[in-house]
């Protein structure tokens, strides 16, 4: 009798798991359906998805990665809710999250798009102006030296990327770490492109390079305080 009850309990548990999985699948399906319903803007019907995707707009990275770069990821949020929250309430430009390319990491990299996205992201994450004192780099009240959050945050925007920050010829921050978790700052020559960007104040896209089987393209972008270039950030993006 007990063995029959146990078998029934196991079967019942399996059924519950299947029903739960089915429910989640249907919930995601109806999220998409809801997202394609039209919003009324005056007398104009605008499809939430089509307003971007018919123009060839794509998310710059997987949704979870993109959302988590600014706040805690909310998997249950519908596309309609996300659009209303960010565009209508917070006045974000569509290109903050979307790109005209299906994947921003595909060649060729749009240097203006990448630098603009990183700049806007850092302004949101670390409010305030850039400042440099000696080799100490500061944005608002936050100091990068010894904390390395800016390098890590930017590296998190592009899967597999590597980020370094230079003040003059000194590498003061990096997302690349040694086995103990400490950023690799010393022992590597500063690229000549750093001095070029410090002098010109203009971002530079270097030729594709490879480390093992991984291919990168590197952007050197100026960091400016009151219009003057005070530091340079290099971002190596996987191709």
UniProtKB/TrEMBL annotation:
Location of the protein in the cell: Cell membrane
Which residue range or ranges hold the Single cache domain? Answer: 145-237
Question: What InterPro entries does UniProt report for this protein, alphabetically?
Answer: Multihaem_cyt_sf (IPR036280), sCache_3 (IPR033463)
Membrane topology according to the record: Multi-pass membrane protein
Show the taxonomic lineage.
Answer: Bacteria, Bacillati, Bacillota, Clostridia, Eubacteriales
One GO term of the cellular component aspect? plasma membrane
Q: Does the keyword rRNA processing apply?
A: no
Q: Which UniProt keywords apply?
A: Cell membrane, Membrane, Transmembrane, Transmembrane helix
Q: Which protein are we looking at?
A: Methyl-accepting chemotaxis sensory transducer/ putative triheme cytochrome c
Chief place where the protein resides: membrane
